Amino acid sequence: VMSILLHGDAAFAGQGIVYETFHLSDLPSYTTHGTVHVVVNNQIGFTTDPRMARSSPYPTDVARVVNAPIFHVNADDPEAVVYVCNVAAEWRSTFHKDVVVDLVCYRRNGHNEMDEPMFTQPLMYKQIRKQKPVLQKYAELLISQGVVNQPEYEEEIAKYDKICEEAHARSKDEKILHIKHWLDSPWPG
Predict the structure, then answer these.
(1) Is residue 186 part of a domain?
(2) Distance (Å, whole) CA 81 – CA 6
């Protein structure tokens, strides 16, 4: 079993519970023998510049309180992300201590993916609008390397879109709300 926590950058840096749980992480009665913390760092928290939200340069600096290694990785490079996550999992497994993966990325459409980020972050979002989405970048790389071809890529996208569309259609037909399986997880046998 491996403990994994997912965080947003502003929450990781700004919520006291993160700091408190780091201090609990090595206590005999509370330890998980190391947690892999994955921070989705979109670089602006909600809509606030980091320099107005915290005193340290990185949102992950709070992990320094327990000398946890912090790996900063470009989230636009899926293979680098997988590599770093494997290193983090090996670290945790070997040393039984917390480790942090800082996925340095951006939100394409601002906070909640619905607001207009140009109001508070105009320079950053001018740059983001010029960026190709990570899926497109990675697909182009794999196609150029001959790992997949364009029709295979388009077929995979179509399969995924079909799964989403079918799930959406089924959700409209749901008449009974089944809550029990959300409240407990009975294990057969």
Answers:
(1) no
(2) 14
